[in-house]
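Narrative of activities, Objective 1.

The group set out to show that a structural description can be obtained from nothing but a protein's sequence at a throughput compatible with the screening campaign. Below is one input-output pair from the validation batch, recorded exactly as produced.
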Amino acid sequence: MFTGGLIMQKIGPVKTASIGGILLGAGFYLASYTTSLIWLYATYGVIAGYGLGVANVVPISVALRWFPDKKGLISGLVVMFLAFGTFALGSKLSPALIEAYDVTTAFKVLGAVFIVVTLIAAQFFRYPETAGGTQAGAAIWGITTSEMLKTPTAWIIVVWGLSIQIGGLMVIGHIVGYAMSRGVTESQALMAMTVYALANGVGRLFHGWLHDAASGRISLTVNALLMLVGLLGLRYLTGPLGYAGLLLSIIPVAMAYGGTVAHYAVLVATFFGPKYFGSNYGFFTFPGVTAALIGPILAAFVYDQSKSYEVAILAGAAVSVIGLIAAQFIKNPGLKPADVK
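Output recorded for this entry:
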C-alpha cells in the first residue's frame, strides 16, 4: 500500500488500480500451478499480495477527494466493504469453489474474477474536477510521508493503533481454544469468528460516522474503550454466560479492531492532507503488520508462561489501555495552509 500510494502520485488512480488488479489476479492464477512452498510464497504471497496492496489504496484515496466534508463516513464505508469483501470471498466463495472443484480451480477462477472486476472498476477511479477541468487547489494540499513522520502526532497515532491492534490480535488467534476451554462448543466458537468478521466491518463504518458526528478524540477514545471492555468481557463473561458471553465480548473487540483502519484514513486525510494521502495512508499499514506479528506471539508467550488464556487476555487488555491514554494526546498539528479553505 505504501508504494502503491507513491505509484498513484506518478501515474494516477486509474492506472494504479489496474496494475494492482492485474498483479492480484495474476498472482492467484499462477498460484494454481504451485508445486512447492517457494512458488506459493512467490505467487500468492508476493505477486498477489503486492497487487492487493497497490490496488487497495486507490478507492479510499479517490473517495476522500470527492467527499472532503464527510471524511469519517466515507472512510468507514470504503474500509467496511473491504472487510466484507474479505469475508464474502475468503470465507464463503473460496471454500465453495474448493468444495465444488478443487484448490487449483479456485485459484484460477478467483484470479480471473479479480482481473475482470478490478479492470472495469478502475476506470471509475478519477479525482473530481472543477468546471475548468482542473483539480481544485483546496483538494491537493498536503505534506510528504517523510515530513509527516517528523510530527509527534504521527507517532502518537502509531502508538494508539498498535496498542489496540496488538490487544485484539493477542486474543483472536487463540479465541477458539479459549472459548472451548470455557465450555463453548467448537462449532459455536467457529461461528463466533463469522460474527467477528461482520462486526469488524460494521465497526469501521460506526467509527467513521462517529468521527464526523462527535470529534476525533471522542471517537478514538471510544475505539480504545471498546477493545478494553471487549477483552475484559472475554475474561469475565464467557465463563458464567457461555456462548452469549463470548458473542457479547467479541463484538466490541471486532468493532474496535476494525475501527483503527477507518481512523487511520480519516486522521491522515485531515491532519496531513490529501495530496500525498496514498503513501501516507500506506505507511499506517506497517503498525498493522507489526501488530499481526507481535500480538499472537506475545499471547503465546504469556500463555506458555502462565498456562492460562485468562492471563493472556488480561495482558491484551492492559496493552489496550495504552491506546486509551494515547487517544487523549492525538490532536491536529495544524499543518493545513491558512489560504486553503
